[in-house]
Amino acid sequence: MELRHLRYFVAVAEELSFTRAAKRLHIAQPPLSQQIRKFETELGGALFEREARAVRLTKLGRELLPEAHQLLERAKRFQEHAARQARGEQDVLVLGLISSFATPRFAVMLRAFQKKVPGVHIELSNHPSAWQLEALERGTLDVGILRPRERMPPDVVSHLIRREPFRLAVPSRHPFAKRKAVAWKELREEPLVLVEPGVAPPDYYAGFFERLRDAGVEPAVRQYAQNVATKIWFVSAGFGIAPMPHTPDTEHHSGVAFIDLPEDAPVTNTAIAWRKAGSSPALLRFVEFARESFAAG
Q1: CB-count exposure of residue 256 (10 Å: 0-12, 13-18, 19+)
Q2: Are 203 and 231 in contact (CB under 8 A)?
Q3: Position 290 pLDDT exceeds 70
Q4: Which residues neighbour 257 within 8 Å (Cβ) at sequence distance 6 or greater?
Q5: Nearest to 19 by CA among 52, 42, 63
């Protein structure tokens, strides 16, 4: 088995087209088809069902695809680690971040850490909380800034760094926009803009929905967004109103006003999370630095 066969398999599985996969891989289609058939022969089973105008994964293909992704991720990390060692870098931290925490304050904290510990290189990427937790368990992520679940994985440690009450984002021309606060019952029949299920934690909006239903209001979702920035844009475009944490760094958007919900509005948490096993000195130093930075207010 060769790594290139895994790459070819993943490309065809994601594109469901040998033509598009070949273009993505910058190779001709016939050699790609030949290599996939060779790979299938080595595995002892077909990975794809081929028809005149369609390509579908077989049961074997569906079962092997997640493992292929993991093997390629590990191979990539191995190659990157070897290259970094050759360049003489001391250590690398792979850091995940939810979009709502990509704030000026967090940027200041990162700059301060890198100035204090210049030998530690941070690889930062933006991912939903669910993705980060899975990556932490796989070991492809060192540390994450995320919305914690009520029950965290047993091999993941987390520490709360911020609590934020929910507020309401409304279009600037909405009747609510000039008000300081609204009551739950006033949200009847107001269309909601939410982050997609699977991006936010399963219970992320549970408290908000509970307060609405207690007031006799049935939530009416009009639009889903993939991240906070898109959610705010949908609000500015007039698609609806959006419950979201009170994060001062995100509350400066043209076409959007932020108003308070009642005093019993739910609170959402942000935590820093890392694996119990294999915590490097650089990782623990970063965690301590982050905790102290946000504890200071």
Answers
A1: buried
A2: no
A3: yes
A4: 169, 170, 171, 172, 174, 176, 177, 178
A5: 52
**Cα–Cα distances in Å, from 127 out to 30, 57, 97?**
36, 27, 6
The separation between the first and the last C-alpha atoms of the chain, rounded to the nearest angstrom, is: 53
SS3 assignment, position 140: coil
Please determine, for residue 294, whether its predicted confidence score (pLDDT) is greater than 50: yes
**Which residue type does 136 have?**
L
Instruction: Give residue 1's identity as a one-letter amino acid code.
Output: M
SS percent in the chain: helix, strand, coil, step 5: 45, 25, 30
Instruction: Give CA separation, 7 vs 12, 26, 67, 76, 257, in Å.
Output: 9, 12, 12, 11, 46
252: pLDDT strictly greater than 70:
no
**pLDDT exceeds cutoff 60 at 89:** no
Residues in contact with 3: Cβ distance below 8 Å, sequence separation at least 6, in sequence order: 71, 72, 75
Token pair listed for 107: 């940027």
Average pLDDT of the chain to the nearest whole number: 88
**Confidence band for 228, pLDDT divided at 50, 70 and 90:** confident
Residue 47 CA to residue 134 CA, distance in Å, equals 25
**Are 96 and 146 within 8 A, CB to CB?**
yes
> What single string gives the DSSP state of each residue in 214-261?
HTT---EEEEEESSHHHHHHHHHTTS-BEEEE--GGG---TTEEEEEP
Residue scoring higher pLDDT (103 or 65): 65
Tokens for 52, please give them.
């005149």
Q: Which amino acid is at 296?
A: A
Which residue, chain included where needed, has tokens 């623990």? 284
Written as six digits, the tokens of 284 are: 């623990």
